[in-house]
Backbone:
């Protein structure tokens, strides 16, 4: 090492760096948890800002407003159709489609007939209303 780097400060620096250590004490867990929380907060904020910027850019597509932008006028603004997968050949049985999770039934354990419960009626209406939407998730790429 001394032949390659003859200056004594370089040798002293290497010796000092070779003894470096990370002090870990009771505050380490606190530091680690706060770092993770900060990372998660910044990640959520970054995604939120990115979604806002995307919404702003997409709003330029309406009425060809992008043509007035100095930076975006020469970009490719063509819109492609969403290609859906072929419809699944297997269909769920009626029992599987109407199957409800156990925690749903834990809400009303007072012995009443659950088909008469307003909550159950409303849930069934919503399930029926959004069934076509839920089926499209299987056809998305």
Residues:
């Amino acid at each position: 090492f001394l032949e390659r780097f003859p200056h004594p400060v370089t040798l002293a620096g290497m010796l000092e760096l070779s003894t470096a250590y990370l002090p870990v004490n009771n505050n380490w867990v606190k530091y680690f948890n706060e770092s993770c929380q900060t990372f998660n907060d910044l990640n959520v904020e970054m995604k939120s800002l990115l979604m806002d910027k995307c919404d702003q850019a997409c709003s330029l597509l309406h009425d060809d407003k992008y043509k007035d932008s100095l930076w975006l006028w020469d970009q490719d603004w063509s819109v492609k159709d969403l290609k859906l997968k072929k419809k699944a050949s297997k269909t769920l049985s009626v029992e599987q489609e109407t199957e409800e999770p156990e925690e749903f039934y834990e809400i009303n354990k007072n012995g009443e007939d659950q088909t008469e419960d307003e909550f159950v009626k409303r849930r069934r209406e919503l399930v029926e209303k959004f069934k076509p939407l839920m089926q499209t998730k299987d056809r998305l790429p």
In short: The two ends are 58 Å apart (CA to CA). The mean pLDDT is 78. The chain has two domains: 8-68, 80-141. The chain has six helices and no strands.
